[in-house]
């Protein structure tokens, strides 16, 4: 081989070495890794051939001149084939990577949390929803055990759906409580590999904590409603009994006072007074039962919440004691509610007393008011709270806090952690708030304190309503002057007490115990009757329906309706809209007489109405249209 050719081969060798270095180090090359390897292999082959020429030029050996050329001619096709193979392989890998990226994009677009978990319970891949649910990055999840992510535990959870799905080959489900205090619904779908063997499970995870919370609220509301109905029914019956007890005790005092001086017995009178006081305490207890059952009669007014709190400040300070720091943080301006002032005051008192009892060694109570607008996903929003503006009362203390099991039973009637408590304070508060269309929530942390939040619908009036001046009867002396009064009452003792008391005061008393007896009695005495006093709930009908039928015949009648409770608010609205007087049970003799006195005044005013009593008495069953809806005027 001549020298010029050898020189060119030497230059070619140097150029090829430089080309190899460029192919290995050029990171920005658009060629794939497989293509780079093939190029490098081809260049090495060419180097070997040029290196052979160099060896021949130097005269080191003639062996390579004989065999190396043939060997290189064989290697070049092999390396070209290797180049083609690696190039196609690189294309395939690129395509697979693109498909995997597209799959991940699709999975990441789903709102449902997904994870693939292999037979060793290691997470192989997840989507963004799962990463957001568990608040972990992919690196913190992939390659880790599923139970370490869910429960921060080294042990699989009981009834693990992934383990069951891999074992059974069926879709398995389970609800678990994650360490993040979330309740999760897990569904594991077995994944079968190319060989027919289950290689793992695709697990979908749904956070059902909001649904569980809603179910608990509905269950709690249903339970409270059921107990409330029971409490309301007990209170109704109890009020009937108390009406008779208190009434007869007052009759006993009257008898004692009207006896001749030499026969008067002060001790007997004192005994009757004790009976009345005990009966009144029992009546107060039934009022609490009615408050819990949301069956109290409300007297709503437009009131300013801030003014109520400042107005009760002195009383609150005396109730909670000097060792507790009471602070007010009230919103600017008036916060107007359409509510019963006395009931709202009771809510504030009950919550303040509850906070006081949580701090036997003193502490701090803060009362905050603010306006809150309910929106979707509002944290404290109950199941069916309509959107709008709500007045918020927040009472927080620095007490000892409550355990979760205590917090869950907080508003249950008769539940108490105090040795001398009745267990009605917070349940009554719950009932009052619900009856006003609001809701109450409680939060507590052990050794930190508790926070109670009350939300009440705001009113839209500009000024608070002035409370009417109450007319208090000055005496129980009342002369019936022969006025006829029909009493319809199914409780025999109440009927006896009322009829005895009114007969002694010169009333002409007619009695009936049922709806049908009331109609028949009125047919007989309608010319002599000026007042009707009826219980709302009668064994065979409604007292409201009864008095409406009677009043349609004789519009000059004055009507009084009485009951231990009104089961539906619409019933009380119906009574009020009719202009009838309402006498809640239990009532003392003074209240009975003052209401009848008011009815007598109404009867005098009604004398301007055409006097039906001057006409011959006609049985109610023959009155035209008597069963038709009655239109009533104001009276």
TrEMBL record:
Q: Which CDD domains match?
A: HisKA, PAS, REC
Amino acid composition bias (Basic and acidic residues), ranges on this chain: 621-635
Membrane-spanning residues: 6-25, 71-88
Q: Where is the Response regulatory domain?
A: 484-600
Originating organism: Candidatus Wallbacteria bacterium HGW-Wallbacteria-1
Annotated PAS domain residues:
99-154
UniProt KW keywords: Membrane, Phosphoprotein, Transmembrane, Transmembrane helix
- This one is known as histidine kinase
- Output the PANTHER family linked to this UniProt entry: SENSOR HISTIDINE KINASE, TWO-COMPONENT SENSOR PPRA
Q: Where is the Histidine kinase domain?
A: 233-460
Ranges for the region named Disordered are 607-635
Reaction equation(s) it catalyzes: ATP + protein L-histidine = ADP + protein N-phospho-L-histidine
Q: Which GO molecular function annotation, any one, does this entry have? A: phosphorelay sensor kinase activity
Tell me its EC number(s), please.
Answer: 2.7.13.3
Per the record, residues carrying 4-aspartylphosphate are 535
């Amino acid at each position: 081989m001549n020298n010029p050719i050898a020189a060119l081969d030497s230059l070619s060798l140097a150029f090829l070495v430089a080309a190899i270095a460029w192919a290995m180090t050029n990171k920005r090359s658009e060629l794939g890794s497989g293509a780079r390897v093939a190029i490098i292999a081809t260049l090495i082959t060419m180097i070997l051939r040029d290196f052979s020429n160099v060896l021949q030029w130097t005269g080191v050996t003639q062996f390579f001149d004989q065999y190396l050329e043939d060997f290189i001619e064989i290697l070049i096709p092999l390396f070209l084939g290797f180049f083609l193979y690696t190039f196609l392989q690189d294309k395939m890998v690129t395509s697979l990577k693109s498909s995997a990226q597209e799959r991940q994009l699709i999975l990441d677009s789903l709102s449902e949390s997904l994870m693939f978990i292999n037979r060793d319970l290691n997470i192989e891949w997840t989507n963004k929803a799962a990463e957001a649910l568990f608040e972990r990055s992919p690196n913190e999840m992939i390659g880790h055990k599923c139970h370490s992510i869910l429960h921060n535990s080294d042990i699989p959870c009981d009834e693990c759906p992934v383990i069951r799905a891999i074992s059974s080959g069926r879709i398995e489900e389970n609800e678990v409580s994650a360490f993040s205090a979330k309740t999760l619904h897990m569904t594991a779908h077995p994944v079968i590999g190319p060989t027919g063997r289950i290689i793992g499970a695709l697990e979908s995870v749904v956070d059902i904590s909001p649904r569980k919370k809603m179910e608990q609220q509905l269950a709690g509301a249903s339970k409270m409603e059921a107990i409330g109905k029971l409490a309301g029914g007990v209170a109704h019956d109890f009020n009937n009994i108390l009406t008779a007890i208190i009434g007869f005790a007052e009759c006993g005092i009257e008898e004692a006072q009207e006896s001749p001086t030499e026969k008067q017995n002060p001790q007997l009178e004192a005994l009757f007074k004790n009976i009345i006081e005990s009966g009144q305490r029992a009546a107060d207890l039934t009022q609490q039962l009615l408050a819990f059952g949301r069956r109290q009669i409300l007297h709503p007014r437009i009131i300013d919440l801030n003014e109520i709190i400042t107005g009760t400040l002195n009383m609150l300070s005396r109730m909670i004691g000097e060792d507790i720091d009471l602070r007010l943080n009230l919103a600017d301006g008036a916060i107007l509610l359409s509510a019963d002032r006395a009931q709202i005051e009771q809510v504030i008192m009950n919550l303040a007393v509850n906070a006081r009892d949580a701090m036997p060694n003193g502490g701090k109570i803060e009362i905050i008011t603010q306006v809150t607008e309910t929106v979707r996903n509002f944290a404290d929003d109950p199941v069916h709270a309509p959107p709008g503006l709500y007045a918020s009362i927040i009472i927080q203390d620095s007490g000892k806090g409550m355990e979760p099991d205590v917090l869950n039973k907080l508003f249950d009637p008769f539940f108490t952690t105090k040795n001398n408590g009745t267990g009605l304070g917070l349940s009554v508060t719950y009932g009052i708030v619900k009856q006003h269309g609001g809701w109450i929530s409680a939060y507590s942390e052990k050794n930190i304190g508790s926070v109670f939040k009350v939300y009440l619908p705001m009113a839209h009036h500009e000024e608070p309503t002035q409370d009417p001046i109450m007319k208090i009867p000055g005496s129980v002396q009342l002369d019936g002057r022969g006025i006829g009064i029909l009493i319809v009452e199914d409780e025999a003792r109440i009927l006896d007490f009322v009829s005895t008391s009114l007969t002694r005061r010169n009333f002409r008393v007619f009695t009936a115990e049922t709806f049908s007896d009331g109609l028949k009695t009125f047919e007989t005495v309608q010319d002599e009757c000026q007042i009707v006093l009826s219980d709302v709930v009668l064994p065979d009908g409604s007292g409201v329906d009864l008095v409406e039928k009677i009043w349609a015949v004789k519009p000059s009648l004055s009507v009084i309706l009485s009951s231990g409770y009104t089961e539906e608010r619409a019933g009380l609205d119906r009574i009020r809209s009719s202009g009838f007087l309402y006498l809640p049970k239990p009532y003392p003799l003074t209240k009975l007489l003052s209401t009848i006195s008011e009815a007598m005044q109404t009867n005098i005013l009604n004398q301007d109405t055409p006097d039906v009593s001057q006409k011959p008495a006609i049985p109610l069953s023959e009155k035209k249209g008597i069963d038709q809806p009655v239109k009533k005027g104001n009276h």
